[in-house]
Each structure stands twice: as structure tokens, then as C-alpha cells.
Amino acid sequence: MPLPPPPPPLVSPAPVSVQRIEHPLGESYLYTPLACAARPCPLIVVSHTRGRTAADFAASPFVKLYSDAFLARGFAVLISNDAGPRTWGAALGYLGQVHAQVVRRFAWNTRTYAFGLSMGGLAALRSALGGPYPVSGVALLDAHVSLDAALRDPGDASRQNEVAQAYGLANVQTALPPRSDPLELIHDQPDLPVLIAGSPDDGAVPFAANGLALFTQSQSTQSPSAERRLLTLSGPHLGGSHFAPAVVSALADFFAEQERRLLARAKRR
């Protein structure tokens, strides 16, 4: 669905460099604070919504509110193409190849975080739950997190067919590959920090079957020291209020807090 007009910019980030990351399945875009030349920086990988590409997201002033907030807090930001507009989290190979390129393009401090919006929630979570590189924390906005729900829900036949095609299934009745649904894998990572932001009013990605279900399931097995936060919003899917300054700050501060904790833990060793 179209993104609504953005509110005024939240921050004016420090100067950044912009690099195009080429790949046969679509280019991604890396934004790096110039301060990273003097001090190694962590990386946030942003995974896009259904029907979009990295170029769409990179050009969107709406999404820029989040990337600006991340950059202002000292993170490099990769707007990932996720191998195409309708890959439904299946593009872990693409993510691994692009990530390997990206971390050679700036002074990286070895930590990667993931942010997924709508369909991009599947890519963000799957990268963190047995993906091609370690992920130190995940934030989700109005996100799909149940691959099975996306495949089985008869309310959107085109979505069902897209998921089946992305995972090489013969049809929508075919079983998903083992260990592909992140809603089932969250128990494997009890220490993974996760922030889930979504709305019960969301008519496109039902909150009860996705974000709320992930939060509820993760509560039963999470480590006592793990961050599992639920930010309940109001309004429709990717509505303008979901990009309000307070919401943007909450997600950006979540990543900054995880980074501070990891830095403090490393100093104690």
C-alpha cells in the first residue's frame, strides 16, 4: 500500500556517505556516518515492504525518518533490496552476499542489527534466527512474522502464490521447508533482543497472528537478560502515526541501548 506523507524530519543526522551495493538481484544502498572513519560503527540492515525495492525505500522521505534517526545515533544503515519486491524472507543468500560486501566498505565494529517493515519483518527475523551472519537485535514495524500465516491465509491469493513461489513450493498447500517460519524459531534464540511495534487496527498484517503472537511465544523462553518489548500502536497498517517522532525515537533508542549494553559487556571482559 502507498506510504502516507511523512511528518517533518525528526533529526538532522551527521554527514554521511552513500554507496551503491551492486548485485544481480538488485542493488542495495549503504549510508555511513562520516564519523565511522575515526570510530568503527555498527550496521542496521533495513528490509522493505511487499512490492517495494531498495531504490523505492532509499527515495522515500517517509522511510528516511527511520534511517536518519539510526544514522544520528552512530549506526551505518543498509537499505537492502532483499533480492526483489516479493521475496517474503526467502532471500537469506542475497542478504549474506550483500552483507559480506558492505562490511568491507566502512569501519565496521562487527555488530549487525535488523529492522523489518511489513513483509520485511520476515527477512529481518529470519536473518537473526539462523541466518548468514550474527544479528545482535531486531526491531519490527507492522511486520509479518508468521510465514505459515502468510501462506495459508485465503484472504489474499496473490500473497499465497508469492510465498509459494519464493520458497519453491508446488502450490499453496505444500508444506514449507523445515525451520523456515520465524514464529517457530524464536525459541532458538532466547537472548535475542526484539522490539515489536504494531497495531490491533492493522487490516493488512493481523497483529494478533503476527507481532503479538511473536511477543507471546518469545516470552515463554526468553533469557532473563533478553530485551523483548511490545510497542502497541493505533491506526492502520503503516499509518502516518507509526512514523511519528516518538515511535521513530523508540525504535532508534532500542538499537542504541542494545549497542551500549554490548559495548559495556565487552569492556568488562
Description:
The chain is an alpha/beta fold and 269 residues long. It has 9 helices and 8 strands. It has helices at 54-59, 61-72, 92-102, 120-128, 147-152, 157-166, 182-185, 211-219, 245-268, and strands spanning 16-21, 28-33, 41-47, 76-80, 108-117, 138-141, 194-198, 228-232. It has an 8-stranded mixed sheet, with helices on both faces. α8 (211-219) links the parallel β7 (194-198) and β8 (228-232). The protein is globular, with a radius of gyration of 17 Å.
Features:
269 residues, alpha/beta, 8-stranded mixed β-sheet, 9 helices, 8 strands
Helix and strand layout, with pairings?
Elements: E1 16-21, E2 28-33, E3 41-47, H1 54-59, H2 61-72, E4 76-80, H3 92-102, E5 108-117, H4 120-128, E6 138-141, H5 147-152, H6 157-166, H7 182-185, E7 194-198, H8 211-219, E8 228-232, H9 245-268
Parallel strand pairs: 3-4, 3-5, 5-6, 6-7, 7-8
Antiparallel strand pairs: 1-2, 2-4
Helix pairs in contact: 2-9
Quick structural summary:
With 269 residues, the protein is of the alpha/beta class. The protein has helices at residues 54-59, 61-72, 92-102, 120-128, 147-152, 157-166, 182-185, 211-219, 245-268; strands spanning 16-21, 28-33, 41-47, 76-80, 108-117, 138-141, 194-198, 228-232.
